[in-house]
# Entry
Amino acid sequence: MAGNHRSDAPAAHHTPDPDGPYDESDAERWAPEPDKRPGRTAFQRDRARVLHSAALRRLAGKTQVVTPGARSSDWDATPRTRLTHSLECAQVGRELGAALGCDPDLVETACLAHDLGHPPFGHNGEQVLNEFAHDCGGFEGNAQSLRLLTRIEPKRFAPEEGTGELVSVGLNLTRAALDAATKYPWPRGERPDDPESPKFGVYEDDRPVFAWLRRGARQHRQCFEAQVMDWSDDVAYSVHDFEDGLHAGHLDPNLLLADAERQEVFATAVDRYAPAGTEPDEIAEALDRLLEQEWWPHGYDGSAVAQARLKDATSQLIGRFCLAAEAATRQAYGSGRLTRYSAELVVPREARLECAVLKALADLYVIQRADQEQVRAQQRVVVTELAEALAANAPDGLDPMFRALYAAAPDEPARKRVVVDQIASLTDASALNLHARLVRRR
# Structure
């Protein structure tokens, strides 16, 4: 398995950009391999590998905010899935990264890969798996993404150091691509500003590959491309979840003029989404700045004209947030190419607060709806019972790939981790089907 066979892989055959700021160490792969076609950069190969991966395709069947295939009682909501979100995040990140001097293929790869490790039923499933895996290192979608990219997704195998046995090295992406996809560059319990945080980026048995990809990086610091990915993720999901809420008829923009509704928005934003120390008055100012824009959707009836106006509003919001970050970063660091650890992405506080407002609106009017809580409660039952059934009957119920990993696991925590890997790989529908086969028919 990745992380157990080689600690100092040599450089790739060529740099990603011979005329740019990336060097040969950025293009290293854990397992060296020759180029298939001359002329492609290492980062173009990375992008292609993620784009063609089964893990990316599975995101089409994983919850973003509402269950894939859900339909509004008023009109077709066509809600985002994890896949459409990842594609939209990649488009935002590619353009923002290119404007700041990053290799666009590198940033797009990170954006495409950032949600690969998320389990069925979104953050709901993530919470259940974290509880189930508490005694084998916990579960975190971003740590699972690294595990998938470097270990689980079958693309490349390499001989393990010391034994010569062939083991999976996942997609075998470059160091720079793996680093760019690392949103939380620390293990569990080591977040510098909050050791109790549930957010982390690497499991204990994946530390070797993590140490390799982070070689030379400042501890706990995201590389510049990861910061672009992170902000692009925030922009994409805040804007598009707001759009989906309007399109599905869950959010009436006129409610934002009522004091009681506004107070709920302010409280949710301050509690969950705004930077620490934010006051409700700042959120009020952020909301009012958005309401004052001539393109803001003050009404929505599902007509073609309303849909076009809403689509324009989403474009305006994305441009507003990205241009704000681009301008502030350029003001701080100048006009040169900004890559790796040469700069920090500067996002103005006003933009972060406006983004927090949109997240709070989606939270209040979509996520916290009573019918959605009922759905989430049932999903938690499904994942809990499925995990228990797989753990009790494994290797029965595991896919062939995970059966082999289960048989090779050296101890009980490692076997439990394989069960978690299996569940995390499922789509919403396949989790329900496997639950029906293993639990309901017992």
Remarks:
- The chain has 17 helices and two strands.
- The CA atoms of residues 160 and 275 lie 45 Å apart.
